[in-house]
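Prepilin leader peptidase/N-methyltransferase, pasting as requested.
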Amino acid sequence: MTIDLPTIPPIAFIAIGALLGLMVGSFLNVVIARLPVMMARDWRGQCAELCGRSLRAGHGPRGNASEEALCHLVRCRLIRDSGDKSATAASVDGSVIDGAVHGPDNRPGGIRPGDIREAPFNLMAPRSHCPHCGHTLSITENIPLISYLLLGGRCAACHLPIPARYPLVESAGAVMAGIVAWRLGVCVPAIWAMILTWILIALAFMDFEHQQLPDAITLPTLWLGLTLNLFTIYTSVAHAVIGAILGYGVLWIVYHLFRFLTGKEGMGYGDFKLFAMAGAWLGWQALPAILLMASVAAATVGIALIRLGGHDRNVPIPFGPYIAMATWVVLLWGAY
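Structure tokens follow.
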């Protein structure tokens, strides 16, 4: 379905898309860096509270097996994250979890559930800062890509290199949005395609860097695709629904077959949801091309890393970036 926008010269539409992509790319860097940390902090806070309630209720080591296993896992994670070398993860009495959660004498340094929940750490706060020295970036140091070039790729305070991911994401956001505007022209589907492009960039880098494809991104984007296709933006709603079902189901079956045959997990559930998301946007007809392209690319890179880079074949390679890139290619050039 093509919905025309007010008359905008194609070159201006491309320039606007690229400029927006540059600015959105700066925000994507915040999402990529902070969302996994926010999720981990929330998980630790919930687990600490749950285990603390279990211990106060007289469960924990003397409770049922699932509670004991959970508390032991929480103790291990909290001890590790708190840096308390004196505590041993093998201890199963209440003092370990209390020490790991509250710290000695409740002084700062221990991890408390309240600290995890109340610390001002989200997508808006604290302000952008150097990951090495904590230097808070000024307005001029926050200008997407340009500030990186003016600073010579180094922090203005500590002069250590700025991670390459920052200019890469900003450049990708601009270039790929410009390509979308050029390929699809001045129309509503092009605008939604830019939004999907930026989401795919965030997911690809997040999976590459953190091995995570958060439900907080994949599931709303899946529903957005289904909603758009109620108006046949990219495909019919029937094809979109079937695409979401098959996208999840096919990889779920592959995962369990691989696990049955090898005893190993070949991919994560986030990959299923990302593939379902692609099906919801582009319909089930797009899935074979996406899966083939992603699989060939992942296999090629994996073999090259093992043969040339000495990559340990037992260390998994994230599949999400390849699904994301293949989805973007099919979005623009596929027949769906």
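Note for the archive: The chain is about 65% helix and 0% strand.
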